[in-house]
Amino acid sequence: MTNFHISLGSEVADALRDGRPVVALESTIVSHGLPRPDNLRVAREIEQAVRDAGAVPATIGMVAGELRVGLDDTQLTRLATVDGVSKLSVRDLAPAAATGADGATTVAATSAVAAAAGIGVFATGGLGGVHREAAQTFDESADLVTLARTPIAVVCAGVKSILDVGATLERLETLGVGVVGYRTRRFPGFYRTDAGFDLDWSVESPEQVADVLAARAAHGVHHGGLVVANPLPADEQLDPALHDRTLAEGLAALARQGVTGKAVTPFLLSHFHSATEGASLAVNVRIILRNADLAARIAVAVAAARRTRTP
Ligand code: PSU
Ligand code: MN
Fold it and tell me: What are the positions of the active site (predicted)?
């Protein structure tokens, strides 16, 4: 990854050079996870949430074959509004670059590119993971194996509730990806506050996440990611009955229409947004904005701790 050609936005380049806090943001949620026209407005709000908490946003994506860390507003607008933006996981970066494609990076690709650019904190909505029926389909997001080898803290509301959450937690354990709850010992379920699984570790503050990251480095752990699971408050979650009903319908429609592969996640998210008449969209936006805020505060704490160690 490190020799992949990356072009840094000027604000991001300045911040990285000066050791100021930077938060990576993905573009797949913008191009494929949120409906137009809300997606562009939300993409800008996510960046603003990072700024409001004192860090520089670096939204990552590919524009005409150029891999950008820190899209400018014209580039962000392009990825949010033009047709034919590819969904890029790590393996897609090279063919997309070589063919001059426009592409939005997933959690996997964003993590890999951010880490290669020297960014240590990333905010998203929900991770990809093991799909239901994966025992037959083998459908497991590349987000998981990528996090096994990529040193980055990912702030998310757990994994998407459309997945097999228990199996995903097992795979994160096998792959050596750290998971800590933010002020909770229960793993969040994206649209839902609680996915029904216990966690071994919780952290209480952005500073404590920075301590965990410093302890990893001190103990020679340089490869894997750290998932910081940040649940929605219970009174902001999607109504659980509506959630379960919508998911059941979505999974049935998926099977009926024969949707497979990388189209599965966008299909189900878009089903949620239309079937709940925007309720899931509002929740999804809240999730991302809260994660962007927490990620920025973590990046601020990490930068402050680094300054204390190397005055
Ligand atoms: N979380 C969201 N919306 C999204 C995604 C995650 O709230 O659109 C995207 C992320 O980019 C994640 C991808 O990496 O879905 C996973 O897709 P797949 O299951 O095909 O790996
Ligand atoms: Mn998949």
Answer: 26 (proton donor), 160 (nucleophile)
Ligand 1 binding pocket mutation candidate from 238, 265, 290 (most atoms within 8 A of CB): 265
| pLDDT at res. 3 | 57
The answer to whether position 1 is within a domain reads no
- At 84-130, the pLDDT tens digits run 999 999 999 999 999 999 999 999 999 999 999 999 999 999 999 99
Q: Please give the positions annotated as active site.
A: 26, 160
Ligand index nearest the alpha carbon of residue 111 = 1
Q: 0.85 cut: is pTM over it?
A: yes
Tell the residue nearest (CA) to atom 10 of ligand 1.
106
Domain-embedded: residue 55: yes
Using CB distances shorter than 6 Å, the residues near ligand 1 are 26, 28-29, 32-33, 106-108, 124-126, 128, 141-143, 160, 262, 265, 269, 284
Q: Print the domain residue range for 73.
A: 6-309
Number of domains in the chain: 1
CA of 32 to the centre of ligand 2 (A): 14
Indicate whether 51 belongs to any domain.
yes
Which residues in the chain show pLDDT less than 70?
1-3, 311
pLDDT at position 1 is: 46
Residue 200, domain CATH: 3.40.1790.10
Question: Is 143 annotated to bind ligand?
Answer: yes
> Which tokens in the block code for residue 199?
């966690």
Which residues neighbour 155 within 8 Å (Cβ) at sequence distance 6 or greater? 121, 122, 123, 124, 182, 228, 230, 291, 292, 294, 295, 298
pLDDT tens for residues 62-72? 999 999 999 99
Assess if residue 141 is contained within a domain.
yes
Distance between Cα 210 and ligand 1 center (Å): 26
